[in-house]
């Protein structure tokens, strides 16, 4: 028996070959009744569209890509193994949003993570297999990004804009300003410690600027640098607590720990609990991101909820628009955030800011 072709599907469904193609490439452009008839015919015939043949004909792959840095977190891996429903990292939520949006536009999604030393090579490999590419900030060197952007449309997620490229980020400064302002004004805390991300993280630095701005508003001394930095993992949060509360710690302990992301904050909460430090009785703790784990830890974590899934959706929308109109002006989108006040700062769980 010969392999069914697009011609066979079109004949059985009573539509044109172009309609069959649109069903698989852009299903929303085909009426629901017609789309179902085509898909039913394909199932009956056992037809599977050939991505390679389609790419040869149209010089497209029908695939969008996402590249992001691999921040390995052994503690998150351990928690995932014991209860997979509890730990969802930032990148997971971005992927979910991007995958759903890509599917709506008739695209598959190719996902690639890489460590810093192989990021450039990984990016070029992925770029050769996709029609458009989303890159999470810090995922690749600038020179590699510029080279790839000459071949396929690129949208940068988070961080700072790149000249000539579409860009989506969240209001990091505003979110950190809100949460720090709350600690200083509502809880009357005066000694806070900020645990930032790597020095080359634009998002982390924007959050620190919001932290500084809250101190200026309150008439407090301006912190010149984060008190500590970490690699955005739970292990880094634990290490921060060890540094601030360990035997070698110097000076007075802070009244509040402000972490640059939720993963570090969760690690910090665990370490404080092991030391018998009461949260929020002895110290307040806050994070940033709003990952699902933030509402499952005890005490529940006060954080800044950013629309991680929406980042993925916006990336797809910008790539699809760029593929349709290559010469359109670069677009930058800023997504709002919201402070979520919970038990770790001394508020009732689920309080809105």
Description:
This protein folds into 3 domains: 6-58, 434 Repressor (Amino-terminal Domain) (Orthogonal Bundle); 63-169 and 308-335, Rossmann fold (3-Layer(aba) Sandwich); 172-306 and 339-352, Rossmann fold (3-Layer(aba) Sandwich), CATH 3.40.50.2300. 43% of the residues lie in helices and 16% in strands. The chain has 13 helices and 13 strands. Strand 3 (132-136), helix 8 and strand 4 form a beta-alpha-beta unit. The longest helix has 17 residues, at 308-324. 44% of the residues are buried.
Structural domain tally? 3
* Name given to the CATH architecture of the largest domain: 3-Layer(aba) Sandwich
What count of helical segments does DSSP give?
13
In spatial order, strands of the major sheet run 2-1-3-4-5-11
Output mean pLDDT: 86
Which class do the helix and strand fractions yield?
Answer: alpha/beta
The top level CATH class name of the largest domain? Alpha Beta
CATH homology group of the largest domain: Response regulator
Structure summary, number of beta strands: 13
- Based on CA atoms alone, the radius of gyration comes out at 24 Å
N-C termini distance = 65 Å
Which residue ranges are poorly predicted, with pLDDT under 50 across at least 5 consecutive positions?
Answer: 79-88
Oligomer: single chain
Overall spatial form: elongated
Quick one: biggest sheet? 6 strands, parallel
Fraction of residues in helix: 40-55%
- Would you list the SSEs in sequence order as H and E? HHHHEHHEHEHEEHEHEHEHEEHEEE
Strand content range: 15-25%
CATH topology of the largest domain: Rossmann fold
């Amino acid at each position: 028996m010969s392999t069914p072709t697009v011609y066979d599907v079109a004949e059985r469904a009573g539509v044109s070959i172009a309609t069959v193609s649109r069903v698989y490439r852009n299903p929303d452009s085909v009426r629901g009744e017609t789309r179902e008839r085509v898909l039913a015919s394909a199932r009956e015939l056992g037809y599977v569209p050939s991505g390679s043949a389609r790419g040869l004909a149209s010089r497209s792959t029908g695939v969008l890509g996402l590249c992001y840095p691999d921040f390995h977190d052994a503690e998150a891996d351990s928690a995932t193994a014991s209860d997979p429903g509890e730990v969802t990292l930032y990148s997971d939520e971005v992927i979910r949003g991007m995958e759903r949006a890509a599917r709506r536009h008739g695209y598959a999604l190719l996902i690639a993570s890489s460590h810093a030393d192989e990021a450039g090579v990984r990016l070029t490999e992925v770029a050769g297999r996709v029609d458009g590419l989303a890159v999470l900030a810090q995922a690749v060197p600038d020179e590699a990004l510029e080279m790839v952007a000459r071949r396929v449309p690129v949208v940068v997620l988070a961080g700072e804009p790149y000249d000539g490229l579409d860009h989506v980020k969240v209001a990091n400064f505003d979110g950190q300003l809100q949460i720090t302002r709350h600690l200083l004004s509502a809880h009357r805390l005066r000694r806070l410690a900020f645990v930032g991300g790597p020095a080359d993280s634009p998002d982390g630095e924007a959050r620190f600027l919001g932290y500084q701005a809250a101190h200026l508003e309150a008439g407090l001394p301006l912190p010149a640098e984060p008190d500590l930095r970490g690699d955005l993992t739970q292990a880094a949060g634990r290490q921060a607590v060890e540094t601030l509360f360990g035997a070698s710690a110097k000076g007075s302990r802070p009244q509040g720990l402000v972490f640059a992301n939720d993963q570090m904050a969760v690690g910090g909460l665990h370490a404080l609990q092991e030391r018998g430090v009461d949260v929020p009785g002895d110290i307040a703790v806050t994070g940033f991101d709003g990952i699902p784990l933030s509402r499952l830890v005890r005490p529940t974590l006060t954080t800044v909820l950013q629309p991680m899934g929406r980042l993925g959706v916006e990336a797809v929308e910008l790539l699809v628009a760029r593929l349709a109109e290559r010469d359109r002006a670069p677009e930058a989108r800023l997504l709002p955030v919201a402070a979520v006040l919970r038990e770790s700062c001394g508020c009732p769980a689920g309080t809105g800011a």
